[in-house]
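Extended Data, record Aspartic proteinase
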Amino acid sequence: MGQKHLVLLTCFWVLSCALLLHASSDGLLRIDLNKKRLNKNAWTAAKVARQESHLRRFVGSQQSLGASSDDIVPLDNYLDTMYFGEIGIGTPAQNFSVIFDTGSSNLWVPSSKCYFSIACYLHHRYKSAKSRTYKKNGETCTITYGSGQIAGFFSEDNVLVGDLVVKNQKFIETTRETSPTFIIGKFDGILGLGYPEISVGGAPPIWQSMKEQKLIAKDVFSFWLNRDPDASAGGELVFGGVDPKHYKGSHTYVPVTRKGYWQFDMGDLLIGGHSTGYCAGGCAAIVDSGTSLLAGPTTIVAQVNHAIGAEGIISSECKEVVREYGEMIIQLLIAETSPQKVCTQIGLCVFDGTHSVSNPIESVVEKQKRGSDLFCTACEMAVVWIQNQLRENKTKELILNYANQLCERLPSPNGESTVDCNQISKMPNLAFTIANKTFTLTPEQYIVKLEQAGQTICISGFMAFDIPPPRGPLWILGDVFMGAYHTVFDFGENRIGFAKSA
């Protein structure tokens, strides 16, 4: 990085330490943070980084200082798509910028022994020889991502988080980072805040170490993400408590239903107060500070896109299903055929006793298999849409027209859809049902604005991401949701709390 950069980094560290010496009257430590404005190119880079390094895990996973009242970690807001802050590792502390990620559980940073990865040379690297509290571990590990891997070995050292020193924390020194994600990323590493059940190598997450070393008074940490594009503060992460200035009213708590990620049971998604049907009987959800947008079943996202006028690709398979089988679907639903078996009776799917799968007879050739999968998926979505319209006593013509329109609103392959910025004020409110309460998102909250050549581009905060059973269907509530709702992660009671952000 060069001596000049290291000198500047040292100055920043000294300044940070000086600021941390002064606590406010309520015992909370506050540091002002800078935010960066959005632009299209940076959004694309950030989107690639987030999708590859975070969303992939839901498919491939199943892989003494005295007590402090609370501890605040300042967060930078990178393009409203990733929030990161500074930590220190070693004695004296070596600074690293990390994403605080509730969707993973390991802490990793580049190693000085990383010689053959460009990403390592573009970021700060941990030098064990310069730390007098370093302890050798040496156990090797690999974490697989969407388009590459990180590999390295475990070490132990003191980790400075805010003004708390977590002793002998087990973390990963990466020696290989093969994904372009880590080259373009504005962060050095990741600090996972998930449960130990998904930690590679059995390394305890940082909050578990804080608890065991009695560094915090309460077994919680909380996020406040500032979504105001004109504000300098990016947000705060508070260990050991909550800052009452960052939320309104009281928190609504839901129990964690599956340890690993912060997973809980969620109800329906409402568009303008109306059910979208697919999760009417309940869906699983995960709160993930490492995911930028709201990711959910394509069936629902298509309905959202239709309601807000988002433009995606036209799915010929979907429109063909509606055209050829729409009336038959209506008749079967009116005859009270189980919705899960409708596509089986039509012949587009095979029902395996729990859910529909593509017809294996049409899957002998790989190309045919891909087509069969698409028709099965399109049929299942059409059943949900048509069933919703039947509940509202719509005519056959209106129902088929509505389903055909939804086909046109299916998200593009990379998951995102654009909207007309001038129509935001006319868009409906959207609401998640959690613990029998509705958590509303206004259009201003679920639309992300980008700047490109002086022009504003608006992106829907909803992206399609289908998790197959039995793990799914699943919602991933990322930064768009956490920006609207202050979130408490209570690992003492294994519960999650939501309150309106202030």
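Summary. The two ends are 39 Å apart (CA to CA).
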